[in-house]
Design goal:
Largest sheet: 6 strands, parallel
CATH architecture of the largest domain: 3-Layer(aba) Sandwich
CATH superfamily of the largest domain: Response regulator
Radius of gyration: 17 Å
Number of helices: 10
Distance between the termini: 35 Å
Length: about 220
């Protein structure tokens, strides 16, 4: 059972998301928050697996709430939902610890799929923002000396994640079991001092390890 917390200041939005998610046997909504401060509090109390986090909320916006949860060490995966298709939201959300980004007009089946993807530890970005997001990384270069600590295999796994590959696809490409890939991913994240695959993508592009021409991009 995947436990979900919905954080949005609009009751109709929360109700709609709840109806969509609870129609699935493997999804359960454990709480609703009307602002970012309440979202942080409920996340720490209810221990959801996934948080649907609106960007614009009173008290504390969704990006700030996401950063607070990351600092608090919350294992919950945050899926940012917004009506605003703006690059800075996506970039800041990923930097802050979000595991995915979708627009609020997402179709119900895609929302359900997104929650499941995020819950199992994969990254998720709406295709319509991928190209511009990658271009944003190119202009946000920074040094990541921790990359020198990675083994050759861990670096290969990082490159594959940055190109959008799942653990199963990485295993097939590198002739490894999925369990072995997960072990390499965990060690790679620990060495880089980051929490999940989304931030691994940030590292790969910011460091210049991957450039836009290296990865398949959505139009």
């Amino acid at each position: 059972m995947i436990r979900v917390l919905i954080a949005d200041d609009q009751s109709l939005v929360r109700g709609g998301f709840r109806m969509i998610l609870e129609a699935q046997e493997d999804l359960r909504v454990v709480g609703e928050a009307t602002d970012g401060r309440a979202a942080v509090q409920q996340a720490l109390e209810l221990h959801p697996d996934v948080i649907l986090m609106d960007v614009r909320m009173p008290e504390l916006d969704g990006l700030a709430a996401t950063r607070e949860l990351a600092r608090a060490g919350s294992p919950a995966r945050v899926l940012i939902l917004t009506t605003f298709d703006l690059d800075e939201y996506v970039y800041d959300a990923m930097k802050g610890g979000a595991s995915g980004f979708l627009l609020k007009d997402v179709d119900p089946p895609d929302l359900v799929h997104a929650v499941r993807v995020i819950a199992r530890g994969d990254a998720l970005l709406a295709p319509q923002v991928t190209r511009r997001l990658v271009e944003r990384f190119v202009h946000a270069r920074r040094e990541w000396p921790q990359l020198a600590d990675l083994t050759v295999r861990e670096r290969e796994v990082l490159l594959a994640i940055a190109r959008g590959s799942s653990n199963a696809e990485i295993g097939a490409e590198l002739y490894l079991s999925e369990g072995t890939v997960k072990t390499h991913v965990t060690r790679m994240l620990q060495k880089l001092g980051i929490r999940d695959r989304v931030q691994a993508v940030v590292v790969a592009y910011e460091s210049g390890l991957v450039t836009p021409g290296d990865a398949p991009l959505e139009p």
